Amino acid sequence: MNKLKILILVTRIALGGLFVYAGAQKFIPKPPRPAAEQGVELPDHVVKIKSMIGGLKGTGYFWPQLGVAEIVCGLLLISQLYALLGAVMLVPLSLNIFLFHLYLEPHEVGELIQTGFYLLINMALLAYDYPKLKIAFLTK
Fold first, then answer.
1. How many Cβ atoms from other residues are within 10 Å of residue 131's Cβ?
2. DSSP symbols for 26-90
3. Is the pLDDT of residue 15 over 70?
4. Which carries the bigger pLDDT value, residue 54 or residue 74?
5. Does residue 123 fall inside a structural domain?
6. Residue 77 — left, alpha, or beta (φ > 0 → left; ψ -120 to 50 → alpha)?
7. What stretches pass through the bilayer (predicted)?
8. What is the value of pTM for the model shown?
9. Half-sphere exposure of 121 toward its Cβ, with a 13 Å CA cutoff?
10. How far does the chain reach from its first CA to its final CA, in angstroms?
11. Residues of 62-86 as b/e, b for ≥16 C-beta within 10 angstroms?
12. pLDDT at 122 over 90
């Protein structure tokens, strides 16, 4: 096996493991945080984040569905046999995670770089398998 194939294998396993872990975290209940003091006003970005995540959790179905999607995509990447399918399915998830940090937490540069790196890795995996994707999408 050449070095590029080994790098792709390790990258798929690492990204897949990351998303399996992140998806599993959606099912672990978090202890409630103490309520903020009445006179304290939250920063605007915190209010937006709480509204968004609260809305996703408030539906009763979307937050667990997101966790299942992350776990499934991660397992597909780890499997190697269906890694291309996992990488394709992961595009909207990784893009949304990156955009969440770009628009709602732009001051958190470390997290922005980290999530941008995950998106970039996902795109690199798709670029590696481009010949297979080309057959599926560019038929004559």
1. 7
2. TTSPPPPPPPPPTTPPPPHHHHHHHHHHHHHHHTSSHHHHHHHHHHHHHHHHHHSTTHHHHHHHH
3. yes
4. 74
5. yes
6. alpha
7. 6-24, 81-100, 112-130
8. 0.88
9. 23
10. 33
11. ebeebbebbbbbbbbbbeeeebbeb
12. yes
| Domain-embedded: residue 133 | yes
* Residue labelled with tokens 């291309």: 84
For helices 83-104 and 62-79, the axis angle rounded to 10 degrees is 130
In the predicted model, what is the mean pLDDT of the chain? 91
Question: How far apart, in Å, are the Cα atoms of 76 and each of 12, 14, 113, 115, 137?
Answer: 9, 12, 25, 20, 20
Q: Check if the beta carbon of residue 114 is closer than 8 Å to that of residue 18.
A: no
Kindly state whether residue 33 falls inside one of the protein's structural domains.
Answer: no
- Domain assignment present for residue 63? The answer is yes
